[in-house]
Design brief:
Helix content: 10-25%
Strand content: 25-35%
Structural class: alpha/beta
CATH superfamily of the largest domain: Zn-dependent exopeptidases
Distance between the termini: 36 Å
Number of helices: 8
Radius of gyration: 27 Å
Strand order of the largest sheet: 1-4-5-13-12-9
CATH topology of the largest domain: Aminopeptidase
Shape: elongated
CATH class of the largest domain: Alpha Beta
CATH architecture of the largest domain: 3-Layer(aba) Sandwich
Length: 425
């Protein structure tokens, strides 16, 4: 191995947190590959590339279309890269993308027992998403490698391949760290809504129950099939009924507080590269709890599979107390499609978020940060994805209210940070 490549290997090893004294085993996750806005070229023909440990890497097998032979030997479990016999041009792989979403994870980097050779010498290589990745820098063995920070472009110039005067197109593709649904809790007072507005916001009129509201559960084993008061496995609540009346959600101060918190959480999440969907954007809206869940689906299409990663409800508490807590899930949740560890994932998300709020704002932890007494909330019983439910401060406590009215940006940033920690841990 050349001294230059040895230095590159040691640098990458330190980036991944292992060194010669702590050798990774084949199959171990040793880091992550992320999307990059840097475009790599070989003799002016773009080649798909990613970033690993701060270095641009390319798929070894792609090099077959850029003037190289890449030969797999199953007996020795080795991959050999060498100049191809036909070196007339670099055909390339077609459209190449640069990514709007710098730093978004593409795949885990896996330690591999495959040895990759370049010019007969072993080089650093990793298994990523089933492919062997090699540092673009390694091609210095065959030519000049340069980088333009201004153009966000890496170039390899190899003498035996003609410069391509008609390169394949490069297009920008937006990538996201994930999809987060932010729910700013209770909205417009039900008494200020017409019947038409209530129906449009997903509320149901039920004369037997005394007016407008919604059912708390889906029928067991289904989604989007209301229980109608039977056929569900949850504990009965609200005076022995699965029915939730619209007036139970009426609040005066809370809607503005929670919307403000969520708007700042949205701002910071989008800066991190997440797609954020809001269940309401103004205080003139009051969607039913059930209707809020349509944002878990692509284009609100509930016939499709949900594509959001986490549903986050931000509320503010009342009734005596101080501080912030997440509401703990426990008991029976049997809506179709949820993972077997649905409650554990949801509680883990709630704890991450609330811990950040308590650490980064003046709000204390209410009941140690976990409120265990409301496991049958509608959203818990109907959500198709993990869900975190935060009671952020007490709006009927003057000290907490002062914090909620002055630290809303910090609260929003803490919510975003907690979500990001959940997604990435």
């Amino acid at each position: 191995m050349t001294k230059r490549l040895l230095c590159l290997f040691l640098t990458l090893a330190l980036c991944f947190g292992f060194a010669a004294g702590a050798r990774a085993e084949s199959g171990d996750v040793i880091g992550e590959a992320v999307y990059t806005d840097i475009v790599a070229y070989i003799n002016n023909q773009p080649i798909p590339s990613y970033n690993v440990g701060g270095y641009t890497v390319v798929i070894a097998e792609d090099l077959r279309k850029y003037g190289f032979d890449v030969v797999w030997d199953n007996g020795t479990r080795s991959l050999s890269i060498a100049p191809a016999d036909d070196q007339s041009f670099a055909a390339g792989t077609g459209i190449v993308y640069k990514y709007d979403g710098l730093g978004v994870k593409f795949a885990d980097v896996i330690q591999t027992d495959i040895t990759t050779y370049l010019q007969g010498e072993p080089i650093t290589a990793f298994s990523i998403d089933g492919s062997t990745m090699v540092p673009l820098n390694a091609l210095k063995a065959y030519g000049e490698v340069s980088f333009s920070q201004e153009l966000r472009r890496a170039d390899v110039k190899i003498s035996w391949i003609p410069i391509n005067d008609n390169p394949n197109p490069v297009e920008t593709k937006k990538v996201s760290r994930g999809v987060i649904v932010l729910d700013p809790g209770h909205g417009r007072l039900s008494g200020n809504m017409s019947d038409e507005q209530k129906a449009a916001d997903g509320w149901i009129y039920n004369s037997a129950k005394g007016g407008w509201g919604e059912w708390r559960h889906w029928k067991s084993g289904t989604t989007w099939q209301d229980c109608g008061g039977y056929g569900c496995s949850g504990r009965v609540t609200e005076g022995g009924s699965c029915w939730y009346p619209i007036g139970a959600g009426d609040r005066k101060l809370e809607p503005e507080i929670t919307l403000r918190n969520c708007m700042f959480a949205k701002k910071y999440l989008e800066e991190m590269g997440y797609e954020v969907r809001m269940t309401r954007n103004t205080n003139d809206e009051n969607p039913s709890m059930t209707k809020r869940l349509i944002y878990c689906y692509p284009d609100n299409d509930t016939s499709a599979a949900p594509d959001a990663d986490l549903f986050v409800c931000i509320h503010s508490n009342a009734g005596g107390g101080r501080g912030s807590a997440y509401i703990e899930l426990s008991g029976v949740y049997d809506q179709a499609g949820i993972p077997s560890n649905y409650a554990d994932l949801s509680n883990r998300a709630g704890k991450f978020i609330n811990d950040e709020i308590v650490a980064d704002t003046s709000l204390s932890a209410y009941m140690g940060g976990c409120y265990p007494y409301m496991p049958e909330l509608i959203l818990f019983c109907k959500s198709p994805i993990p869900i975190a439910y935060i009671e952020c401060g007490f709006f009927d406590n003057s000290s907490d209210l002062a914090i909620l009215n002055s630290e809303y940006e910090q609260i929003g940033k803490a919510i975003a940070s907690g979500i990001d920690k959940y997604i990435n841990n």
